[in-house]
Amino acid sequence: MKNLTATLFAFLCTVSVFCQIQKLKITTGENLLYAQLTDNQTTKDFIKLLPLTLNMGDLGNREKYSGISSELSTKGKVQNTFKKGDVAYWLGGGIAVFYNQDGHEIKAGLVVLAEIEKGIEIFKESESMNVTFELIDK
After folding, report:
1. CA-wise closest residue to 108 among 136, 74, 135
2. Which of 44, 67, 113, 132 could form a disulfide with 94 if both were Cys (CB 3.0 to 4.6 A apart)?
């Protein structure tokens, strides 16, 4: 019975995107960053757009932002606050990477898609940058 349970669990994990350890690879110029994905419907919708390259501009010396042409689900946890390292879907229709925490509240709301593990400082380097998001297995 124990082997049957383990086999069934292994099978279910192979059909689920989030049972695998998947990460978001973020590239800007020569820099590579990795982020841990958040398990929600908004993230699953975002994954369907990948790979995705955006020209992201600076907003408020706290985030890089770009609009996107696709509307994502809002079934993830909607919040008005962020933390440094969050990659989020702005409910107004865009993707934001937060590199500085200034206490600003996002009135339209956000759903966090992923959390950058380290290296977030690269987003401070210029006013705008091309950023590529890709899904990788790790």
Report:
1. 74
2. 67
Rounded to whole angstroms, how far apart are CA atoms 99 and 93? Answer: 19
Residues 6+ apart with CB under 8 A from 29: 129, 130
Dist CA 134 CA 138 (whole Å): 12
pLDDT digits 0-9 by tens, 50-107 = 999 999 999 999 999 999 999 999 988 999 999 999 999 999 899 999 999 998 899 9
Domains and CATH numbers, the chain: 2-137 (2.40.100.20)
What would the pLDDT profile of 92-104 be if each residue is shown by its tens digit? 899 999 999 998 8
Dist CA 136 CA 23 (whole Å): 5
Q: Is the pTM of this model over 0.90?
A: no
